DNA sequence: AGACGGTATGCTGTAGGCAGTCGACGAAAA
DNA sequence: TTTTCGTCGACTGCCTACAGCATACCGTCT
């Protein structure tokens, strides 16, 4: 299938130009990947993406390289860019790293988060619970990410927060398609976490966060473990041999 | 049997590299930064770098963006690239993150490193000690990085290893100019670390690694703390009506 | 003399184009 | 029929060129 054909099915939203084109293209491609319009292993042809987004190849190239640095796509020299294929093993390792980073963040947040920080945490948590109660899955997932991001921010360590954010984005991509459950239990744990942070109990905060992320990890592995193993997604370049005309 | 099958069974060591120009430029600029030829806060003009390296602006642009993603340079939209200015606070946070990542790596390495891994660790350690004894500071620093990288590799968690490597590169940049001391003590700790890994004692390995990286951190903070604070290096674009390069 | 606006400069961001390279397909030979 | 070589096509990587813009300099006004 051609990218332009995919564009026909969905909204071929041209990118607005608030900032540099590169930034916009990065977000657009991330969105295409997360939403599943670009499937793992798929060959990303620069010219097609450029045409799809209504820009030239250069911003697309630069975006792909930045995305490569963050693990979204794999760049094979001379061959091009391919959407990264999340292995089960890699997902497990990534979730382990997330556990590590966020546990430390929680510990630091318990030390350094002030009243204002706790207040913001409570607000997000309340919104998340409301989202779950109204079956707003996407909203709950987004709020979950926001809350975790806020915890890392409150750690006071910006390097740590940045790294955790980077990892969290990938986690979210891997996790979203299988995160359709584990609704309220997760937010109970969030509440307990905030209590610990408010109390300044770093050990408890770290413990709760560790168990919380491990629950997520277990949930993920359980769900993914039952899936059939994908066939070898060997990256091949030429996705479009002939057939310029018909889609079908 | 196909060659590709053979390649699959053995180590799939690709040919060194098709050596894209971008990769070369990245390494060249990193080297220029580490060596101090490009100073923190300096405005990196694409065309000048291109001329200096004998390439066009495009590979330079792409290199700068990748370097931006790794924290080497800051990219101000519409203004250009500036060599990142390492703050004391940021260095501290970065070293804290390194402690976190490498401690976990050591713990995992104690679990999963086999005899072969321990042997390679011992080899590196011996070389490092030899380098220190012969006052080969650069060699010792390089071997130190290699040893830490090997520990993260032996953790078995590639995501963790990759992240740690990324952090370690920046640490090395920050740390190199002030790492002219702390020679043999560091390698004694390395030896103890390897002993713990060989014994499979994850708690001890983690403890040693934590203390080891904290020693490094303390050493760094002590040395940097005495330095005068640099004046505000406000990024300005047009720094140079003439030529790049200062070696004149 | 100091402040403000106009102009000039050079840099960035983007587009378009060309050569090199890799993979695939087809033909020829065993 | 299977294997191997030659050719073709497409895509990537790189270079060059142009437009937009932010900054710096300078003249003028207050």
UniProtKB/TrEMBL annotation, chains A, B:
CDD domains hit by this protein: WHTH_GntR
SUPFAM superfamilies on file: GntR ligand-binding domain-like, Winged helix' DNA-binding domain
Pfam families, sorted: FCD, GntR
Taxonomy, superkingdom: Bacteria
Annotated keywords: DNA-binding, Transcription, Transcription regulation
Region (Disordered): 215-248
Domain HTH gntR-type stretches: 19-86
PANTHER family cross-referenced by the UniProt entry: GNTR FAMILY REGULATORY PROTEIN, TRANSCRIPTIONAL REGULATOR, GNTR FAMILY
Name recorded for this polypeptide: GntR family transcriptional regulator
Organism: Nonomuraea antimicrobica
